[in-house]
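Predict the structure of Hydroxyacylglutathione hydrolase GloC.
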Amino acid sequence: MENFRVIPVGMLAVNCYLVLDEAAERLFVVDPGDDADLIVAAAREMPHREAVILLTHAHVDHIGAVPEVARALKVKTVWLAPGDVPMYGSPSNNLLPYLAAVAGLPPTVSEWPWRDPELLSTPGHSRGGSCFYFRSRKILLSGDTLFAGSVGRTDFPGGDFALLEQGIREKILTLPDEVKVYPGHGPATTVGAERRNNPYLV
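Done. Here is the predicted structure for Hydroxyacylglutathione hydrolase GloC.
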């Protein structure tokens, strides 16, 4: 049975990830940014008793489908770091002129009860930027913190390049080389490849 899916969604091709914890029958839906119908259809092909939404940050392109996905999958837990909560429901959270703020968002929680994935706090792209490390699978979902050959923008409100770089160096580049990095946009990479080749980090 497939237990990991990548679904590019929306006009900015945000990578939404579905990660199934088969033992717990729990499905993690990470960054459902748009195209709720695609996400829900894929989720229903991955048998689970509980669905949880995890948000790497609250920029509108990563949260656009949260209301629809939460309703369709009967999600009770939407996790978001406290630093991004003010932006999450803000009517000014439109990021770019052609992206509207999201209405009808469910409330979020900030407690982290799971052992796998592990929460890595990596602010810099936004105040509450976060990564999720599935140690058992050697998979890191890096949101807009780290990309293949690049790093997240820091020119949006709450951006801070020094914080971003610190988080990447202390939290991500200390992971094993073979850990696969799945970013919020674009192709996957590895920790080792970014340590050696990323022009923002070498």
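The chain has six helices and twelve strands.
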